[in-house]
């Protein structure tokens, strides 16, 4: 099937939108990159945006190309043949969805839609978002879906920082408002995915993504609970998971840690729960798992206080270093990172908390700006909490320097090691 005419507009140039734009450019498409954040546009132009090496090379190749237009003006959408919406869908401090950016992006796409366009929602959201924010407003503008414009949902499936699962090798799920909408959206996305799986509606595609991330959230909460159980029984949870993973069917290995961060696992299931609560539909398993994930960083902080007490160090005034504050290894991103909650809890208890993370130069916690300690080995710490172990970030310096709380469960060679 032929591509739609005109460039593809990618709305939102974050960890989903920018790799999508670069993949489309590499496939020969012209791309309009729209982002309302001037700092993000500057980072893309300068080639300093956080990307996997393959995408960083693509950015260097295309940053100055006339086929790649960067703008903060939504009016540019009117000149696109297709629009792919890739904005974040966060939650607020009470774990309530905050879809303001999504609503604004969809409203802009509807406002500037022109006949013949394909509009694809790639953001993760509640079931019915595509219909509510695109299909119905387009109809209200007098644009008939599947006649004047073509609308589909194709939730992103990008794993930031993971080179083992590049975008093009991960099948893409597409649900069109009609079969023709699905076919056109699938043709648009074929250059960025080796396989496209078409489902019967946007709602089916939306729920698919929510199931994927809720599955991960539930299993992360479960393995964290088993880590606590293993500790109570004086067993090594890593050994237990490795042994269970030898079963060739019916088991997928998940690893315990300090919690879940980023804009997927700790956020996306809340869009489902929010929708279900409004309809008074119970989802007790999902609800309990999300509550357990939210509580996990506080459990890490409590364990840190216990370790300090066991060494006779009062928490007030104790010097505690958090090693790694990014939400996962290999990414320069601390959004929703459990480390932030750990720092908040320990600081509230009176500890003098600092951090080291070469990928995060600074961060703000409770109104305070903290900066990366470049040479933590040169200072004394009463406790080191290893939160994130980045590839290539040497942690050998922590050996022999006092107690280490290993929230990654991966530093089994450290002698004075404690687990959550």
UniProtKB/TrEMBL annotation:
Residues 321-413 form the UDP-glucose/GDP-mannose dehydrogenase C-terminal domain. SUPFAM superfamilies: 6-phosphogluconate dehydrogenase C-terminal domain-like (SSF48179), NAD(P)-binding Rossmann-fold domains (SSF51735), UDP-glucose/GDP-mannose dehydrogenase C-terminal domain (SSF52413). GO terms for biological process: polysaccharide biosynthetic process. Keywords: NAD, Oxidoreductase. GO terms for molecular function: NAD binding; oxidoreductase activity, acting on the CH-CH group of donors, NAD or NADP as acceptor; oxidoreductase activity, acting on the CH-OH group of donors, NAD or NADP as acceptor. InterPro entries: 6-PGluconate_DH-like_C_sf (IPR008927), NAD(P)-bd_dom_sf (IPR036291), UDP-Glc/GDP-Man (IPR017476), UDP-Glc/GDP-Man_DH_C (IPR014027), UDP-Glc/GDP-Man_DH_C_sf (IPR036220), UDP-Glc/GDP-Man_DH_dimer (IPR014026), UDP-Glc/GDP-Man_DH_N (IPR001732), UDP_ManNAc/GlcNAc_DH (IPR028359). Signal peptide: none annotated. It comes from the Bacteria. Belongs to the UDP-glucose/GDP-mannose dehydrogenase family. This is UDP-glucose 6-dehydrogenase.
């Amino acid at each position: 099937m032929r591509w739609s005419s005109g460039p593809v507009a990618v709305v939102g140039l974050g960890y989903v939108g920018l790799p999508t734009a670069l993949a489309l450019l590499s496939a020969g498409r012209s791309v309009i990159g729209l982002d309302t954040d001037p700092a993000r546009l500057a980072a893309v132009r300068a080639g300093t945006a956080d990307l996997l090496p393959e995408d960083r090379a693509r950015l260097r190749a295309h940053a100055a190309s006339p086929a790649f237009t960067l703008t903060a003006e939504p009016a540019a959408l009117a000149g696109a043949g297709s629009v792919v919406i890739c904005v974040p869908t966060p939650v607020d401090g009470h774990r309530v969805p905050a879809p303001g950016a999504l609503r604004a992006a969809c409203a802009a796409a509807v406002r500037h839609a022109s006949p013949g366009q394909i509009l694809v929602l790639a953001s993760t959201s509640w079931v019915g978002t595509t219909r509510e924010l695109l299909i119905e407003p387009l109809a209200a503008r007098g644009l008939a879906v599947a006649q004047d414009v073509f609308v589909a949902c194709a939730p992103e499936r990008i794993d930031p920082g993971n080179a083992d699962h590049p975008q093009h090798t991960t099948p893409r799920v597409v649900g069109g408002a009609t079969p023709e909408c699905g076919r056109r959206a699938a043709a648009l996305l074929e250059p960025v995915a080796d396989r496209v799986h078409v489902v019967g509606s946007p709602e089916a595609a939306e729920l698919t993504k929510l199931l994927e991330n809720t599955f991960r959230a539930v299993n992360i909460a479960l393995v964290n609970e088993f880590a606590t159980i293993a500790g109570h029984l004086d067993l090594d949870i890593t050994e237990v998971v490795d042994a269970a993973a030898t079963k060739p069917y019916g088991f997928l290995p998940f690893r315990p840690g300090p919690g879940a961060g980023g804009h997927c696992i700790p956020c996306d299931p809340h869009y489902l729960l929010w929708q279900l609560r409004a309809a008074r539909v119970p989802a007790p398993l999902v609800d309990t798992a999300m509550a357990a994930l939210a509580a996990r960083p506080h459990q890490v902080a409590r364990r840190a206080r216990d370790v300090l007490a066991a060494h006779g160090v009062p928490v007030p005034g104790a010097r505690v270093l958090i090693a790694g504050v990014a939400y996962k290894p290999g990414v320069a991103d601390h959004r929703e990172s459990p480390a932030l909650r750990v720092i908040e809890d320990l600081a509230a208890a009176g500890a003098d908390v600092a951090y080291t993370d070469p990928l995060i130069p600074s961060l703000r916690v409770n109104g305070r700006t903290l900066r990366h300690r470049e040479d933590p080995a040169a200072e004394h710490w009463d406790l080191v909490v290893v939160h994130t172990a980045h590839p290539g970030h040497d942690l050998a310096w922590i050996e022999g320097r006092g107690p280490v709380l290993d929230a990654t469960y991966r530093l089994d060679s450290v002698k004075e090691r404690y687990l959550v």
